[in-house]
Structure to design on (452 residues):
């Protein structure tokens, strides 16, 4: 896995001033354990938070920093923290780290957990102090076996050093932390499905309200944050709001840095910590090195399989939520995928929709029935057996499964790439429609018939 810096690859060294997430990484890719982490100023932010800051001041600092969730939704972290109850009589609260990283084409949290496990623990420790939570769980994707091994070792190191457990740093504050490996369901990335799974229930999303801040794990107030989100907290506490905001490029409404990447047939696929506001072109050309010889960029996704496709001319968009929204899709996880000119878009979408269909929890009808329907139609078109009206039916499903039409955000994310692919590459879909036979009585299904 590649990690480079703000300029063209390897020309500028990572530093604490510019790369708060990655400056401690080892060049050999090995994990940074407790002694080395502390030698690199690790847990200094936690000591500051415990000795010099009131709990509410920590929350306010994170709110003022503009930190937003890094799992894809982008909700302001400080605002989310502020939803936790202020009632001091509620002495059982939970902090959950969402490490169920199953978005196709996304591996940023894995790098942090495998190589900098103490950064996540420190972020959770400070967050627990701010939120008055006495117990935390890292809900980890079951396939991340190396991450689980490294996190469990780091937890034991922190316990032995008095950084977890009872009376942390002599403050009287107790915090226990556990690593919980999931069973491998994409839907567990939705925070209430994650909570159900942690409780031993089926991983279905819950109805909201009530929100987890009021009724979460085992009915108690709960805050759920993504791995990368929590890893930003120590630097914000250590170096302050103004510094953190200064990291982003002019024009960006999102603050700080972001782990971004590019995969596909690019010359230098990898992962980099970059300031919000860099352009997609910088990410694609300066870091990923452009397409490999013999390939041409056909389109790209800016942030995982659940984001819409963009064309090469959209590469000049700035990489932050509002910048990507201007060209018609979402920032998502910030890990982009290049699609080369040898790829048939119908086959690519059929593969994607098979994944999303399989990973549906099956709770609501539009998702449970609509996604398999899209797979059936795409498979027919891929095989040259599509019928007149199939493309219109697919577009109808895009509308029927869009935002606000289903119980959670799984289906809207699943159909966003489908809608964009038809928008930009409709001739490839039309090529799979079989010639109409004389006397063919098959009904043409229109978008209005599926609720669009």
């Amino acid at each position: 896995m590649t990690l480079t810096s703000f300029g063209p690859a390897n020309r500028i060294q990572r530093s604490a001033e510019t790369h708060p997430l990655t400056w401690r990484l080892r060049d050999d890719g090995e994990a940074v354990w407790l002694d080395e982490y502390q030698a690199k100023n690790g847990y200094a932010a936690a000591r500051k938070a415990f000795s010099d800051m009131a709990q509410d001041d920590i929350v306010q600092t994170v709110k003022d920093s503009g930190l937003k969730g890094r799992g894809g939704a982008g909700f302001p972290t400080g605002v989310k923290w502020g939803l936790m109850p202020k009632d001091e009589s509620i002495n059982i609260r939970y902090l959950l780290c969402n490490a169920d990283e199953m978005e196709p084409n996304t591996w940023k949290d894995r790098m942090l957990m495998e190589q900098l496990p103490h950064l996540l623990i420190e972020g959770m420790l400070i967050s627990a102090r701010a939120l008055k939570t006495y117990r935390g769980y890292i809900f980890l994707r079951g396939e991340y076996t190396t991450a689980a091994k490294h996190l469990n070792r780091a937890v034991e190191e922190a316990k032995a050093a008095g950084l977890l457990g009872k009376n942390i740093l002599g403050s009287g504050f107790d915090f226990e932390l556990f690593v919980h490996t999931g069973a491998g369901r994409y839907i567990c990335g939705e925070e209430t499905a994650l909570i159900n799974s942690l409780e031993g229930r089926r991983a279905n999303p819950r109805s909201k309200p009530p929100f987890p801040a009021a009724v979460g794990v085992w009915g108690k107030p709960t805050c759920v944050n993504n791995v990368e989100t929590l890893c930003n907290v120590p630097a914000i506490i250590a170096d302050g709001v103004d510094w953190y905001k200064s990291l982003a490029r002019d024009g960006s409404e999102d603050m700080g840095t972001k782990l971004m990447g590019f995969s596909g047939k690019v010359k230098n696929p990898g992962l980099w910590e970059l300031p919000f506001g860099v352009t997609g072109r910088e990410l694609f050309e300066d870091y990923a090195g452009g397409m490999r010889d013999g390939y041409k960029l056909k389109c790209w996704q800016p942030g995982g399989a659940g984001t819409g496709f963009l064309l090469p001319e959209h590469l000049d968009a700035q990489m932050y939520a509002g910048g990507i929204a201007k060209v018609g899709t979402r920032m998502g996880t910030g890990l982009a995928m290049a699609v080369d000119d040898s790829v048939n878009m119908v086959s690519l979408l059929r593969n994607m929709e098979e994944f999303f269909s399989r990973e549906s929890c099956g709770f609501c009808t539009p998702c449970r029935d609509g996604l398999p329907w899209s797979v059936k139609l795409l498979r027919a078109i891929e095989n040259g057996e599509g019928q007149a009206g199939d493309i219109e039916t697919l577009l109808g499903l895009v509308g029927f499964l869009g935002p606000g039409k289903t119980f959670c955000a799984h289906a809207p994310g699943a159909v966003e790439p489908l809608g964009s692919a038809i928008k930009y590459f409709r001739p490839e879909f039309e090529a799979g429609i079989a010639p109409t036979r004389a006397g063919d009585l098959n009904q043409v299904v229109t978008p209005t018939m599926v609720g669009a």
User: Anything to note?
Assistant: The domain at 34-245 is CATH 3.40.50.11540 (Rossmann fold). The chain has three domains: 34-245, 247-340, 345-450. The longest helix spans residues 410-430. The two ends are 42 Å apart (CA to CA).
